[in-house]
Amino acid sequence: MSRIYDLYPQNLLTPSQAAEYAGVSESTIRQWVHRGLLEAALPSQGRGVPALYNRPDLDEVKRILAEREAARAA
To answer: Distance from first CA to last CA of the chain, Å, rounded?
Structure first.
């Protein structure tokens, strides 16, 4: 996952933006976090301040899941 020095503001997405970018629902983003596939680049800072997810981390999760699906189909 991302290190703080790997973060660029244009790559940080709110949960709803991350879901839209990944083509999944916000609940899927939460499931990925719960399953340990995705970690917030910047954790939530309390009420009204959402966690932020790094775009390359989302790309990596989608790549991993696609590889797993391909392996299952083979």
So the answer is: 28
